[in-house]
Amino acid sequence: MFHILWYVIIGLLSGLIAKSVMHEHMTMFWTIVLGIVGSILGGGLTHMISRSKNERFHPAGLIFSTLGAILVLFICYKLKIHLP
User: Fold this and answer.
1) How far is CA 40 from the centre of its chain?
2) Which of 2, 19, 24, 65 is the most buried (most CB within 10 A)?
3) Distance in angstroms (rounded) separating the CA atoms of residues 18 and 66
4) For 11-51, what is each residue's pLDDT tens digit?
5) Residues 72, 34: contact at Cβ < 8 Å?
6) What is the C-alpha separation between 38 and 68, in angstroms, rounded?
7) Cα distances (angstroms) measured from residue 49 to each of 43, 45, 79
8) Of 23, 19, 24, which is closest to residue 69 (Cα–Cα)?
9) Is the pTM of this model over 0.90?
């Protein structure tokens, strides 16, 4: 139960940082979704670089979640996709 709450909190923080860096305006819901997608993307990248000892996929921390969210916003900007 608490890990879902942790995903939402990290998603909110990384989404807020990413949208402030990229100067985007979106609702709180889409900010959280952006952060969670960035966390999944960042976790996938960190899992490819260095595997965990128990071989389970893990979401990224705040730094890689933010970098993943910035990457998602950059791709959306280049493809001219406007998030609500």
Assistant:
1) 6
2) 65
3) 6
4) 889 999 999 999 888 889 999 899 889 888 887 777 777 76
5) yes
6) 4
7) 10, 6, 27
8) 19
9) no
